[in-house]
Model the fold of this input.
Amino acid sequence: MTAGPFVWALLAAALFGASTPASKALLDELGPFTLAGLLYLGAALAVVPRAGGVPRGALRDGRTLRRLGGAVLFGGVVGPVLLLAGLAIASASAVSIWLSLETVFTALLARVFFREHVGPRTALAIALIVASSALLASPSLEALTPAALLVAGACLAWGLDNNLMSLVDGVSPAQSTLVKGLVAGATNLAIGLVVEGVPAFDPRTLALALLVGATGYGISLVLYVAASQQLGATRSQAVFSTAPFWGVALSWLVLGEPVTPIAVVASVLLALALVVLPRDRHAHAHTHERIEHAHWHRHDDAHHEHAHEVVPRFGWHFHAHVHDPLTHEHAHEPDLHHRHDH
Done:
């Protein structure tokens, strides 16, 4: 795995992990639907300066629209509401732990439905992640409550969202986040105002909800989508699975929730998973068909050799480009260019 996308996924995890205890505090004044709406509207506001216009080709591509629409529905509407509903009746640290199920669902859906190769070391890393989270959850009886089922439902919805977004091209991560933020935010807020009523809160609560959404959902989502298009849904989600540990740590530090000694062992297992994951090597001869699309890319990966009138100042850049047919062999990740059969 290249260092850049790995770091993007890790930063995305830290930002989203911090949003869990912050959202828990906001639920004292806001209902789950209303808060979900404000969080995603905050996400949309955060990416407006970087979103620009959506390429016309993407709007005419039915496959891109279906994938983006499914991601908005499951990742922007269903997932957040289920998470916040569970968070309203369970501790922030317990919910942060249960969020590791997103890694499991993402990997299963990727392997069964989205043609993503999962190597033995990646599978081992996922097993270590699940073990570390189970270890953290073991002292708590909350794992048997309805809140756990709500969070599991959110993780399943986000697992589908992760796989769909890793295949979306033609729109930049900022553009897809803007679409998701506006649609999901407006939908959830409208439902919240009808079902939960107009909340009585001060402007500081509104500003805080938008700020949490801007960082924990907006910036985090842009970083995660960019990483998943380079690493594939399973690997990027495995890195992103550090989010529960950020959430647990902040729950201890900020909300004063009790620290469990067993967390040290669980943290070691998670660190070991992150060491194993980048060492999974997958290489074989494969053929690329001709394709025209737009996504973040570099020119040092043996796949992007097109010319530029103006050479990009930085390595990573986004624009529409064409790939000619190509057959070669090299180590690769299940990114946008490597979803072939095995």
Residues 203-231 form the longest helix (29 residues). The chain has a mean pLDDT of 77.
